[in-house]
Amino acid sequence: MKIKDFPEDSRPREKLLKKGAENLSDPELLAILLRNGLGAKKGERGENAIELANRLINEHGLDKLSECSVKELRNINGIGKAKACQIFASFELNKRINQAKHPVKKISCAQDVFDLMHERLKDKKEEHFYVLMLDTKNNIIGEQLISKGILDASIIHPREVFKPAIKNSASKIIIVHNHPSGDPNPSGEDLEITEKLIKAGEELGIKVVDSVILGREKYWNWKDSKNS
Predict the structure, then answer these.
(1) What fold does the segment set 103-227 form as a domain?
(2) Alpha carbon of 183 to those of 76, 146, 179, 215, 219: distances in Å?
């Protein structure tokens, strides 16, 4: 049954307008984003937008859908380029809204780094290595993505890390990366990279204040590990 054939007050869009979003189920809200369902093929029945939304949530869960890239979404039966972009953009906006509610402009501890970067990196499937640039009072004056993918000490060269810091006249930096596994505990490679960059910073006169690894719900940081 097509949604246009539903009673008017049962159609997701009309229901939202009359009763408010809080009265819609997750599939109904997702159906508004999808706009239409999956057309019938020979020997198969189609799905309206609510049925498609129900299937997506039952098979993947809202939390897993929010972690999918556009490419991964497009691999789901019934999700083409337009729907994939709509879903991805919606989840991305939600992440940015959550981050905007808790803006971090000054770094006083590793928790501040977690609050600043966690929402952005928690669902990434690859490791993202950032440098945060600070002034003498620990105010953030810039950030730079240095690499994306498996971290390798031979790839993370001090020149690439400190180049944006020098350009922005940073007094200090903090290096940050995520662990897609969700476990923030450092690998041997992580420790090697950190030690190499700390030494390079000492030679350049730009202090590496900390190295923070973000997991799914918690973090590890170099400074606290050395003081414990």
Answers:
(1) Cytidine Deaminase; domain 2 (3.40.140)
(2) 28, 21, 6, 5, 8
> Exposed, middle or buried by CB within 10 Å (0-12, 13-18, 19+), for 65?
buried
**pLDDT tens digits, 109-163:** 999 999 999 988 988 889 999 999 999 999 999 999 999 887 766 678 899 999 9
Residue ranges per structural domain of the chain: 3-99, 103-227
Half-sphere exposure of 176 (CA within 13 A, CB side): 26
Q: What is the fold, at CATH topology level, of the domain defined by 3-99?
A: DNA polymerase; domain 1 (1.10.150)
